Amino acid sequence: MVTKKLLIVILLPLTTSWSVAIGTGGSDKPALKDAFAGHFLIGGAFNRNLVSGKDPNAAAIAIKHFNTATSENDMKWSLIHPQPDQYNWEPADRFVDFAEKNNMVPIGHCLVWHVQVPRWTFRDDSGNLLTRDALLARMKDHIMSVVGRYKGRIKGWDVVNEALKDDGTLRNSRWLRIIGEGSEEKQYDFIAKAFEYAHQADPNAELYYNDYSLDTKKEKCDGAVAIVKHLKSKGLRIDGVGIQLHSGLDYPDKESLEYSIAALAATGVKVMITELDIRTRTRGYRGADISRINRQSTSDSNAADDETQQKLAQKYTELFSVFLKHKNDISRVTFWGVYDRTSWIGGSPLLFDRNYQPKQAFDAVINVVQNEN
Ligand code: XIL
Questions:
Q1: In this structure, are residues 95 and 146 in contact, taking their beta carbons and an 8 Å threshold?
Q2: What is the pTM of this model?
């Protein structure tokens, strides 16, 4: 017992100072949020361990570098509303508390999506698919409860996530099938209703449409433009479109990224980069359909090589040069994660490595903005 205690007394200061040293994310480095102040907000998607104190080194990076925060999973339907009469508020409450305590603008992600939504959402007590009216009522109840709970605290919501196919037409989800009833006139109704309910629940909250591959597929971007125009034609509030920007070492190219920013901004909404990361593995599927993408499918044994890290830094340089060029249209850039180990994809996609250290890519991003100032 005495020996154990003694050991703790000797080792504790060592471990603490080590974790603080690595936890600051490069104590000699400038903070991203300060470097980009006056241009756009900089943020990250936070997981439960980060906001609950179980990953203090990740929290230290977030607190130093970010002034906006998105909940990575805990506000998604299946997590926050797992059963018809049961909401799981605690993790989402922690997220909002963490963001507020650390002066970060909290973003809610997401209200209506075709994945991470329980099976019961679309079915009645006997297991039959709901009618249009019943599903709309369920959607309204969910949105009023979730948005209502954080009224005045969440700055903006991803109201509808990933409603588009790559060709720019609407994805054949249960939301579309049941609420759209196979009719062309009603195809946008599930989106319009979601925006209407969210506005009703918190009239001051910003409301966004969010999707991937808007930066690589022109038709998909045009599909997002059509959604914005439809909502505006109905007099509904929409403040922004999120370009997720799950990228790779050789995509998107500058021109198509610029096309998407300009085309979306031309509708009068703000453009946000909402889920930035860069896949280092160069083979395979390029989109961000979560049924096809995960840590295994994107793992990359060369991720730590100097050559890969240089390419990663170059791609980040190019992307941030484009963001700065279009800074009048871009209000926020959010990374999908904080450091490589807890990223949803494998390889080396973020600015901080598996040991919480800033990478070449971090310096590259700082250089872009310092050279422009
Ligand atoms: C991902 C999370 O990062 C993972 O932890 C989870 O298992 C699946 O979802 N597009 C989105 C995000 O809008 O919500 C997804 O997040 C990544 C793709």
A1: no
A2: 0.93
